[in-house]
């Protein structure tokens, strides 16, 4: 894939470990942002196989099987939509460039660098979306097949290959900005030469905006101030459901809300599309398209964290690749 004007980016097959098929449904853990607290507690306390127990240590080797020179095909079915992508290794060079869109923080990069060096492997691929459409190959079989705790259907198979994959187009970072930043720093320090990536064509991805939880401001103030505009936003609270309206770029609307609330002494907190709150007022922003996100990033730079939400979210713990 073209990531710059220098030529093609190469995705190599990987050699590492995948969850043993008969244990995959126990090892795998949906993204934390998709789990409510009681689900996390249940997994942590009652399931000894869960990757939750081995976030900072090596799992039992009997939980995994080795794979060599293979691309993994990960298929995730959610809300009736089938999404399929290819997992491999992105070679890091000085020319590698991936368009990001979220701000990263130095302290988080420092922690994640320490984590990578501590466990000595990558366990969760960066979510990379190509600008151009392409066909994701299907393996002959999917040895890993299960339904996760959220009811999503997961399948994973692998295709043995000694040859890299090259596709045309730009690369966009959808999820994993702090991991990408940490790995780039480790590359500059000579400690990492490749990055585990989950590569998807644009048709396999859905992007949404986060909700915002507003505290310290009543609904009447919001209704009065945000009474006109092309974008209709839903707000929910003790009063039920009501509508407010804003004008402008969808990805900039959160700034209008935050400025108004903070100037009046209130507070604003991000919520994922699946989170709810019984406190304050929850404001739901319109969904956006991939082209809107990338266009905004090119023109204005990075957005605050928790402004976009890409789906699907890959289950954690299915893949492990040693750092090299």
Can you characterise this structure?
By secondary structure, this protein is an alpha+beta fold. The chain folds into two domains: 2-206 and 312-322, no CATH class; 211-284, no CATH class. Helix content is 21%, strand content 34%. The chain contains seven helices and 20 strands. It has helices at residues 24-27, 37-46, 106-119, 177-188, 219-225, 253-263, 290-300, and strands at residues 2-4, 7-8, 11-12, 14-19, 64-78, 81-91, 121-122, 126-130, 144-147, 153-160, 171-175, 194-200, 206-209, 211-215, 231-237, 240-246, 267-271, 281-284, 308-311, 319-322. Strands 3, 4, 5, 6, 7, 8, 9, 10, 11, 12 and 20 form an eleven-stranded mixed beta sheet that branches. Strands 16-15-18-14-17 form a five-stranded antiparallel beta sheet, covered by helices on one side. Strand 1 (2-4) and strand 2 (7-8) form a beta hairpin. Helix 3 (106-119) packs across helix 4 (177-188). The longest helix is centred in the middle third of the chain and has 14 residues, at 106-119.
